[in-house]
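Researcher: Can you fold this with zinc ion in place?
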Amino acid sequence: MTTRGHHPAVLLPVLVCVFLGLAAAITSSVVAVLLPDSGHHGSRDSSRHDLANGQSVYVFASRKAGYTLWSVTGPMESSVADALDELRSRKIPLRQGDPRPAWLRRAVVLQGDPETAALAPQNSRGIAAGWPLLCLRGRTDRNVNLRPQSHDAGIAWVTVGQAKRAFPWHPLWWGLLGNTVVYGSAMLSCWYASVYAFRAIRRWRGRCPACGYPTDGNSSRCPECGTPRRASDQATGTGSSASATVACSSSLQTTSTLTSKSSSSDDR
Ligand SMILES: [Zn+2]
């Protein structure tokens, strides 16, 4: 308790800023979902990924700030995929490779007969949001031919205005950690900057930095709250007032010199 005046508390601000940083990370994901699609800043790319069993998967990835949507079609037979290549390559250049993140590559969970379900093309959509790092994810899977109902994982559908929005809520742990560190440390810096600025102002006004009580230059502790004064403050406590007197008298001299100069210039 005796060091209260010297060092601001550490544990409480850190805990508060971790909590607020986490809240800001989650908020960034919500804001990214709600941001309108901007055709100029967003980007789209499509790619075809051939699986080992002779089937193919199509992935369309569209991105805007803090938001990525992967639309996956497949798996489908290679002959069907070739026909689709013809159609799609005219509009959007096609790349090879699988741009799906690992959590989107996992097998689609389907209800019903697994044999027929495995052959039918599926649409699955993966959504990840968050800024500066993607920090929350979700996917929604639908079997195109067999069943209309979708299987959602980590998606909350919310009607905003007239549109239904898909908010992801499964954590992407590294993104969540990174965003929490970014936002939390920014808040912590602001916290300490304001604490130190506040104390510096009190000290400059000759008051106790902890409680604001006016201190005299000689005592080693604040008479009000008992906070020990800094050694540097005590050393300059009497010295500063003495130097202030000197500075004051010298400024008086300067003023008088200036006055005499100006008066002499007026005479001419
Ligand atoms: Zn005090």
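Model: Folded with zinc ion in place. The two ends are 68 Å apart (CA to CA).
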